[in-house]
Amino acid sequence: MHYISTRGQVPPVSFSTAVAQGLAPDGGLYLPEELPDLKPHLADWENLSYAELCEAFFGIFATDIDPAELKRIVARSYTNFDHADIAPIVKLDDDRYVLELFHGPTLAFKDFALQLLGNLYESQITHTGHRISVLGATSGDTGAAAIHGLLGKEGVTTFILYPDGRISPLQERQMTCTGADNVFPLAIKGSFDDAQTAMKTVFEDRAFAEEVGLSAVNSINLARILAQCVYYLYAFFSLPDDLRSDITFVVPTGNFGNVLAGWLVQRIGVPIKGFRVATNQNDILHRLFQTGTYELEAVAPSVAPSMDIQVASNFERFIYYAEGRDPARVREIIATFKSTGKYVFETFESAGFSSSRTDDAQIAQIIKDVYATYGYVADPHTACGFAEGFEGKEIILATAHPAKFPDTIESAIGQDSTHPSLEALKSRPIVKYSVEPTPEAIKAFMRAHV
Ligand SMILES: *Cc1c(COP(=O)(O)O)cnc(C)c1O
């Protein structure tokens, strides 16, 4: 299978090339040239373990990786999870289920993709002998998950940009207390969008990208989207038969990577009913789904910081399909949005998505109510999935463990939320670097440290 860019200005590439590059050289995002049909496989996949399912799924997409090697890569990627089911489902009542995605090493859903990506990189480096420099921008959890996915990987140097003071202290400790000498957490003065914009400009410098072997771990990397597809499939199979196609997946959303993965699974033949995009007060996507206008506003820091995003990079992948797979249309929309901060879709199909918005006060109230009703502790991101006003059955994706946000949990329900892996970090020294959020400063720092 080959992969094309949403902007259509580069030739199709193999899976391994798409993963190694992250962002396509024309600034677009990679997608499969043709979408496969999973329907013929569903009966065979029904009873597979998580790792087996992941291997079968990637077997369809990663056609240039030797099957025995793929098996090893996948098997290694899901050994650091602290639950036997990897992605367990908790039933709250007949209408409400939770898909817990926080049992990986950094206690957020991003581990699913980044544990795998670390092993994919390692395998590539073994074959090519070329070192890789990973550059990412994080609103909190990606950085921690990337760093933990890449720790101890020979030939990889990791640089992670994050907005200083705008991620939780424990998220910062997960990135800065690793003791690893090939990991550089870079604190910038600015927002996550500033970090992401600077990062994208660095990627557009092709000479620099070649020079340092640049790769992206942000959710623009296709491997991340595909890895996230697997838990939608796994959840689909884990649900009781009569619920599978009668339940809406509710996804706390920032960069649109997680929910896009579910939507792709639906497009390739799995009869999922639909999706709800649950935003916090940074509601660009909620406004889009309500009005058809995609319009930038300033980021307002919230108690769910990993969703404090306005420019949702993966939205470009959705536009590609929504606009009839026409790269010229994608380029036009992205260019208009980039220059004016706004794009009005004349006809906007919601394509099976509904949406909701939850502000900080509502998040606190929801954490309280969910605890009182079900005895379940939802982290502030997951809480957005419990927004009111919807009918029908829902499965809410729990994207982070509540112990990552102890202050918000404590003030909502008066209880400490702890996790042993986080407690252990508190006695370790913090090592971080400060850089200006400009492409030049970032490139200079990277040149000095690869
Ligand atoms: C990253 C993250 C999100 C947002 O996911 P996207 O793929 O960016 O939409 C939500 N919750 C948590 C805990 C996260 O870490």
What does this structure look like?
This protein is an alpha/beta fold and 450 residues long. It has a domain at 89-106 and 224-415: 3-Layer(aba) Sandwich (Rossmann fold). 44% of the residues lie in helices and 16% in strands. The chain has 19 helices and 15 strands. The strands form four sheets. It has a six-stranded mixed sheet. The longest helix has 18 residues, at 111-128. It binds pyridoxal-5'-phosphate. Residues 108, 110, 141, 219, 252-258, 306-307, 381, 399-400 line the site of pyridoxal-5'-phosphate.
Taking all residues together, what is the mean pLDDT?
94
Structural class: alpha/beta
Distance between the termini: 33 Å
User: What is the correct CATH architecture of the domain at 89-106 and 224-415?
Assistant: 3-Layer(aba) Sandwich
Strand content: 15-25%
Radius of gyration: 20 Å
Given as residue ranges, the uncertain stretches (5+ residues, pLDDT < 50) are: none
Helicity, as a percent range? 40-55%
How many strands, which pairing sense, and closed or not: the largest β-sheet?
6 strands, mixed
Give me the count of strands.
15
Number of helices: 19
Give the CA-based shape: globular
Oligomer status = single chain
CATH class of the domain at 89-106 and 224-415: Alpha Beta
Bound molecules: pyridoxal-5'-phosphate
Which short descriptors sum up this protein?
19 helices; Rossmann fold; 450 residues; alpha/beta; 6-stranded mixed sheet; binds pyridoxal-5'-phosphate; 5-stranded parallel sheet; 16% strand
